[in-house]
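Lab channel / #folding
Pinned by the channel admin:
"Please post every new chain as: sequence first, then the structure tokens as a reply. Keep commentary short and put observations after the output so the thread stays searchable."

First post following the new format, from NK:
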Amino acid sequence: MHIAAIDHMANNGDSFLHNARPITKVSMALLFLVSLIVTNHIFKALILLAIPIALILLSRVNVREILHLAAYPLVFSILFALIRIQQSWVAGLLVMTKALGAALNMLLLIATTPYTDLFGIFSYVLPGPIIDVFIFTYRSLFILLDKLENMMKSIRLRGGFHPVRILFNLKNTAGALGVMTIHAFDMSERLYRIYSLRGYKGKIPLSREWEPLKPVDGFLLLFSLIVLTGVFIPWNI
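Reply from TO:
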């Protein structure tokens, strides 16, 4: 389960990126994304791709899991790259480089920052009910995925999947998804009752205290600004 693996990396890591403040990592991710978006230079894009790769290695997260997740946007970007490659092979390579760089950038953020810290940062700009929905959904997703995995395994053991009968497999899969939908509604009602009994009044209190920045935060912010500045400097390559 990729989400569980990412959550484990974010909460159990002990690198300098894990110890940096969430606001620093969110700002760094945004600056890198802006740099990727505005650049149209292939060598600059390759450097912007190498930076998150280096940070992922330094953060000591599960590289295999990260690359597995980053492969999904890379595959989809190939479709757009094939269109741009008619213009030039550099344009096609630029599309794939930007897609992979953006994916690795965001994976670096969520693999080194617990989701509660991320939602705490987003609570400054998003309404409280939306943050609550994110938190409830994130927690419930693990439970539903675990139930779905057990259900699909049970269907497979009872002969519910056949390598040739595609319609038969689709029928059983649709039935399993229907049961999971009912479970989701039932679980949402039970969760609401549980939180109501514990004093939930339509808003989960999140810490809004600004913690002092560490030296690593200043270094990461300065490095991100240097990278963004370098994107706007013309190269003669």
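NK: The mean pLDDT is 79.
TO: also worth noting, The first helix runs from residue 2 to 12.
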